Structure formats: C-alpha cells, structure tokens
C-alpha cells in the first residue's frame, strides 16, 4: 500500500507559490538530495512534498512529528 509520511501543510497564495517553492527547493537540496513531488494528504488535499530519489537504506524512518498537527 501507499506510505503515509508525517508532515504539515502550509497554504501559499497562488501569486507567491512559485517563488516560495523555489526557495524551499534550494533549502531542501533539489535536485541533488531531494525532489519535489505531488502528494495527497490524509484529508484528500493535494500538496507538494520532498522525496529522496536515491537509496534510503540505513536511514531512520520518521514515524510522527510531535510539534505540529497533521492534516
């Protein structure tokens, strides 16, 4: 089945989304460390998320974020 990934949704206005996403891409190391992908939240909303394109063997799985509510 599909994996659920803990995270938070941050809504961006349409006119500001692309420049802000470009800044986030740079901070996340796109495309060398991560790639930005479309996901569906547990509430059924579409969102962007960052995914590691390479092997994840040996990396710890994040089971839950404790400081923000998930959506």
Structure, explained:
The chain has one helix at 14-28, and strands spanning 35-40, 46-51. With 71 residues, it is an alpha+beta fold. The longest helix is centred in the first third of the chain and has 15 residues, at 14-28. The chain is globular. The protein starts with 13 loop residues before the first helix and ends in a 20-residue tail after the last strand.
Q: Topology of this protein?
A:
Elements: H1 14-28, E1 35-40, E2 46-51
Brief summary of the model shown:
The protein is an alpha+beta fold. The protein is built from one helix and two strands.
Major sheet: 2 strands, antiparallel
Question: Gap between N and C termini, in Å?
Answer: 19 Å
Share of residues in helices: 10-25%
Please identify the structural class as seen in this structure: alpha+beta
Stretches with pLDDT under 50, minimum 5 residues: none
Strand order of the largest sheet: 1-2
**Beta-strand residue fraction:** 15-25%
Radius of gyration: 13 Å
Order of helices and strands: HEE
CA-based shape: globular
């Amino acid at each position: 089945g599909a994996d659920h990934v803990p995270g938070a949704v941050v809504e961006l206005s349409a006119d500001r989304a692309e420049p802000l996403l470009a800044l986030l891409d740079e901070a996340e190391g796109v495309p060398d460390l991560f790639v930005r992908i479309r996901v569906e939240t547990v509430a059924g909303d579409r969102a962007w998320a960052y995914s590691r394109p390479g092997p994840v063997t040996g990396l710890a799985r994040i089971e839950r974020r404790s400081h923000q509510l998930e959506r």
